[in-house]
Amino acid sequence: MTTLKQLRGSAAIAGVATYGCGESPGHTDMELLAEAARRAVSDAGLAMKDIDGLCTASASATMWAMPVVEYLGLRPSYIDSTMLGGSSFIAHLLPAMQALASGQCNAVLVCYGSAQRTATFGRREVVASRRYLDPQPYETPYEPMQPLSAYALAASRHMHEFGTTRCDLAEVAVAARAWARLNPEAFMRDPLSIDDVLGARMVCDPLTVRDSCLVTDGAGAFVLVRADRARDLPREPVHVLGTATAVWNRQISSMHDLTTTAARDSGRAAFAMAGLAPSDIDVVELYDAFTINVLLFLEDLGFCAKGEGGAFVRGGAIAPGGRLPVNTNGGGLSCVHPGMYGIFALIEAVRQLRGEGGDRQVAGARTALAHGNGGTLSSQATAVLGLAQTL
Hints:
Elements: H1 4-7, E1 11-22, H2 29-43, E2 53-56, H3 65-72, E3 78-80, H4 88-91, H5 93-102, E4 107-114, H6 123-133, H7 148-162, H8 166-180, H9 194-199, E5 202-204, E6 207-208, E7 217-226, H10 227-230, E8 238-247, H11 263-274, E9 283-286, H12 291-300, H13 309-313, H14 331-334, H15 342-353, E10 367-374, E11 379-386
């Protein structure tokens, strides 16, 4: 039996790519995904015929892996189409590592694409249809404005319980924008201040539109291979040192504590597999669907104590030049958010470790954490990544 400790560092990300981030009118989800996939495979120094493992998921198609296989012309011996919302693509890592270790496959392509911003049948229509296709028994009858209502509920509870302020939440948005201004791929790059966030249109108290993620098009893909093979490929391998997924609930109303997420378990397990602690991490990429997410995940992943997330981010502490670089591409708040953001967090972590961050590069980064969130604080998946010298 292969243990998690034995899997530590056994697989590496050999290629990454994004495509169509922002607005890509005239493209379908599949076309965006396919171009990102082609670029990621090329980045890895491979050809599409070398891909014999596939991980993918879609918010609108329940059998999404099949048309992806057909469109890309693959014949995979390993397929994972587990759908856990925005955490899916980080959650795909551990099963893919096990498939590689067993010899079931040799090169796994993980890919996602969405044209939700410019498509005729876009995000608004998908959310409306979900009321009938995937009704939540304790919430749908009351017609909440999901996912906004859920995250506003968590933010309100955090403010009540720990004294967190709207300024603390705004710090997260301002830091994300400061990073985005250094990233030519980011969708929103104009200046943003605390006052801008506080004075923006209130969409669900206490969250304004600037506390909320973008609605963009975009696609992302990466290629995972065994570590020994990665050494012979052109790009510097980024090893998966630890990864774990945890799910405690589907509906926000079923959370036992609105200020503690399953990231507590996924983070603890990922760090245990990696043999590292939060203090060992150089770069942090968190799924920031809303500003409250960053506070909750910094706490639940162990970067600060429960209730101290607001104080932790004050004074530009997670912005460029701060004590902990967080969401260095600008995150879902300012860079890209095509429905499910997790794969972009992972790709940015890889780019930072490969030293490809350009003006936003974190000097000397050797370790990174990427964290995905799915549903309404429902599914949490954490990955701890590192360069060869961290093995």
